[in-house]
Write a structure and sequence with these properties.
Helix 3 packs across helix 9, helix 6 runs parallel beside helix 7 and helix 10 packs across helix 13. A hairpin with a 2-residue loop joins strand 2 and strand 3. The protein has a domain of 244 residues: 3-Layer(aba) Sandwich (Rossmann fold). The strands form 4 sheets. A 7-stranded parallel beta sheet has the order 6-5-4-7-8-9-13, with helices on both faces. It is α/β, with parallel strands linked by helices. The protein binds 2-amino-3-ketobutyric acid. 2-amino-3-ketobutyric acid binds next to loops.
Length: 367
């Protein structure tokens, strides 16, 4: 929702005080208008939010959520390739490479962007196949945005971290916010380094950057892309389509997971929290639920009794084995009021219901 004074300004009638305050930037309680004069007429442009990597698993849902909150025109979705996704095309869509700083700056200036959600990254499994590029994308992409904030081109950044910052020497259960962190994957190393840089840019340059250590994210609207936790989305599609699933992790591999609705709520909540309440400028632990493939299969059997699961662990098993089984998120709860809503039973039920509904709609309206 735009701030109430926006309506006042919306008809382009700017009062005398406003006119006197003409400068390049105007702070208007919760939104910022870019002001300039053309032939003595004050022009303004409402500030916008930019999502880089909007076509990914989180990006699509975050774009939808932020657009329904602020309006379609206020949220610029962007990704490296054109999209045919109708949700992303409800508002502005830009082709943007996270590694192209001049391109990002041009987009920021064009749309008067003040907040950036940087989601473009290679996830754990894909990153292991191309470590050099993963390191480059995950780190250079972050520096581009941190530097734009340091240069005062933008005011606020969201950057996702992950449970991958932890490693085999980390306490596995109820992993604390601050603990031993020796990640063994290139993705985890890039996220841990990124967290330290976020903290550094905040301490040294006052950059307002906020971050969450996402667990595995489970959603029905968008596909995951290249993570170790992806099985927990695919399993629902295979259960509905074929009644069986072959899992690339072992039956007893417990990992922290979270329903996408919870993850989006957490992301928006941390970004809306007063700056003073964000005591931690690296990444916050947040917990949803934890389960093993076998436990998830049991939940699926409550709806599809004949569902069968088999196990063929691959290289992703070693990644999963290096990660925690459950997370202590008390700092996020205390600092900005985080509270998850989905346990494994509700997650499983919602996934089965919504995917079934989506598939039925797709059959009813073939493209
Ligand atoms: C992955 O599996 O790589 C991601 C993550 C836990 O960050 N879902």
């Amino acid at each position: 929702m735009a701030c109430s004074s926006f309506d006042k300004h919306n008809d382009k009638t700017i009062d005398a005080t406003m006119k006197n305050r003409v400068a390049s930037k105007e702070n208007c309680c919760c939104c910022i208008h870019l002001l300039s004069t053309v032939n003595d007429t004050v022009m303004y442009m409402e500030s916008t939010i930019l999502i880089i990597g909007a076509s990914g698993q989180i990006g699509i849902e975050l774009t939808m959520a932020l657009r329904s909150k602020h309006g379609n025109g206020k949220v610029i979705a962007s990704d490296i390739r054109p999209t045919s996704d109708t949700a992303l095309l409800q508002g502005p869509y830009e082709i943007l490479d996270a590694l192209d700083k001049p391109g990002i700056l041009a987009c920021i200036e064009k749309h008067n962007v003040k907040e950036v959600y940087l989601l473009a990254a290679l996830l754990s499994a894909t990153a292991e196949k191309n470590p050099e590029f993963a390191w480059r994308l995950n780190m250079e992409g972050l520096f581009n945005i941190l530097d734009l904030a340091r240069e005062k081109k933008i005011d606020k950044i969201f950057w996702p971290s992950s449970i991958a910052v932890f490693g085999p020497t980390t306490p596995r259960e109820m992993t604390p916010q601050r603990t031993v962190m020796e990640p063994t994957t290139v993705y985890g190393i890039s996220k841990l380094a990124g967290e330290r840089w976020c903290e550094y840019y905040h301490q040294r340059y006052g950059v307002d950057v906020r971050s969450i250590r996402y667990p595995g994210l489970i959603g029905y609207r968008s596909e995951p892309g290249g993570g170790t936790t992806d099985y927990a989305v695919d399993i629902f599609h295979q259960a509905i389509d074929h009644g069986k699933y072959t899992c690339f992790l072992k039956a007893d591999t417990k990992l922290p997971m979270m329903m996408m609705e919870d993850a989006i709520r957490a992301t928006i909540a941390i970004m809306e929290a007063p700056s003073a309440s964000i005591a931690n400028r690296s990444g916050y632990n947040i917990a949803g639920c934890s389960f093993t493939p076998e436990e998830l299969a049991e939940h699926i059997r409550k709806e599809i009794p004949s569902f069968a699961i088999s196990y063929e662990p691959d290289f992703r098993q070693a990644i999963a084995d290096s990660w925690p089984g459950s997370i202590d998120d008390s700092c996020a709860r205390t600092d900005w009021g985080w509270q998850s809503e989905y346990d494994t039973a509700l997650l499983s039920k919602t996934m089965l219901q919504e995917i079934t509904k989506k598939k039925a709609e797709h059959i009813a309206t073939p493209r």
